[in-house]
Amino acid sequence: MGVLSVVAAVLVFACAAVWGTVGVLGVTGKLPGNRWFGVRSPETGRSEAAFVLANRVAGPGYIGAAVILAMGGLLTLGVDSDWSVLFALAALVVAVGTVGIVSGLGIKAAQGLPAESTGGCDCCSGGDDHVPASGCADDKADSPADDCGQSSCGSCALQGMCETDTAATKR
């Protein structure tokens, strides 16, 4: 057994431990909102409830990816060949694909939750200094697209309305 096989096996076991832990915490609803682990996207960042829901949906897939990685690590260590590192590589590719798919499902679930009202603009990332007293920048506008490009406020309500007329007609 080569050194490369041992290193590859240790790396996939480490990834399996991380993804397995994230999956279990996600399924149980105990994964705290953070910047590094779990399903993170603008949709899951809207509220704690969206983050928890997305990770509950994706959790079983994370656990499945951890099992795939663990099996790949065992095969990498168990096969006495210079090519055994390919088991770790194949397991990593399948696990990353699995996590990508279940994360997409989690994001889809989070999109279905209504946005929590914070008294101002729910989607502002730049603070309240650019928000009029009435709330979002598009509250006084004739069209929600009137504030396109002026701030991040209202971006949740816009949902693709910032396209130019020429871009919309090219579809």
Question: How would you sum up this structure, described in words?
Answer:
This is SdpI family protein. It comes from Gordonia pseudamarae. By secondary structure, the chain is mainly alpha-helical. It folds into two domains: 109 residues, no CATH class; 53 residues, no CATH class. Helix content is 54%, strand content 0%. The protein has five helices and no strands. Helix 2 runs antiparallel to helix 3. The longest helix has 31 residues. The protein is elongated. The N and C termini lie far apart (56 Å).
Helix content: 40-55%
Q: Identify low-pLDDT runs.
A: 118-141, 144-159
The N- and C-terminal alpha carbons lie at a distance of 56 Å
Main sheet specs: none
DSSP strand count: 0
Tell me the radius of gyration.
22 Å
State the shape.
elongated
Q: What's the overall average pLDDT, rounded?
A: 78
Domains (count):
2
What structural class should be given to the helix and strand makeup? mainly alpha
DSSP helical segment count:
5
Run of helices and strands: HHHHH
Beta-strand residue fraction? under 5%
Keywords: Membrane, Transmembrane, Transmembrane helix
Protein name: SdpI family protein
What layout of secondary structure does this protein have?
Elements: H1 3-28, H2 48-78, H3 85-111, H4 155-158, H5 165-169
